[in-house]
């Protein structure tokens, strides 16, 4: 079945950028809904069709995508959608959500003889904007094949991870690792600062070393600039590390680092506010050390300078042994 009418629910920092990449592809009609009507104005000006309710959107499309800030909102939206779903529908869930909730909600959709994919994205706002973000996908291969042209509008590297639950779990794992890295970067830069080292030199030294990472190459830049602007907020990072910690409890893993991280970011949310930027957790270290980690020549926000790359499916078959 070919899908030409796509629905998008959730037009926040990442969702609006993903939706914009779909509408750039002229073969799709994009129907959008968000509780904040202002978030849809730019998309509507570019050709998206605004719906006044979730029910209206579902009735007009064959594929609908959700990209929402919390498991609670994903659940609320899906439960409102269920009565209007039929066998022609595919639900693609692109949020970072709870794997148990995802399995439960997927079963509700499958009982309607519709199809489901979980497809959380990873790689930052700047890659969401350029269409070069990575996508972790789980669900049936048949549904994956049906929706691959849509996913291709959105991302570059696309990995099929197996059954529902796998992609949500892997996304939470990657966000946990990124959050650990963020905290470590703050401490590493502070050591360099206290030592008297030029922080530009420190940044480039780390970049060419075994200590380099995606987080360093991106988030360190906006920390050193002082904007801290990665478009990701403290409430979201608390949600993500909390979901990871929940998994460690579920499997009785004595995860000392995870417990510590949860406390660090909860403290950050308490001191800085839930809508403060996640990278501003480093600001607390600066305050505690009476130091500023500023250096000239770094951008206030991140831009992917690469043009949209052709989507590729990452083949992980050879990695299995």
Would you summarize the structure shown here?
The chain is α/β, with parallel strands linked by helices. It has helices spanning 15-24, 41-45, 54-60, 71-81, 99-110, 125-130, 141-154, 166-195, 199-207, 214-225, 234-250, 256-272, 281-289; strands at residues 5-9, 29-33, 49-50, 63-66, 90-93, 115-118, 121-122, 133-139, 155-160, 312-314.
List the helices and strands and how they pair.
Layout: E1 5-9, H1 15-24, E2 29-33, H2 41-45, E3 49-50, H3 54-60, E4 63-66, H4 71-81, E5 90-93, H5 99-110, E6 115-118, E7 121-122, H6 125-130, E8 133-139, H7 141-154, E9 155-160, H8 166-195, H9 199-207, H10 214-225, H11 234-250, H12 256-272, H13 281-289, E10 312-314
Parallel strand pairs: 1-2, 1-4, 2-3, 4-5, 5-6, 8-9, 9-10
Antiparallel strand pairs: 6-8, 7-8
Report on this model:
Helices cover 50% and strands 13% of the residues. The protein is built from 13 helices and ten strands. Strands 1, 2, 3, 4, 5, 6, 7, 8, 9 and 10 form a ten-stranded mixed sheet that branches. Helix 5 links the parallel strand 5 and strand 6. The longest helix has 30 residues. The two termini are 35 Å apart. The model has no long low-confidence stretch (mean pLDDT 96).
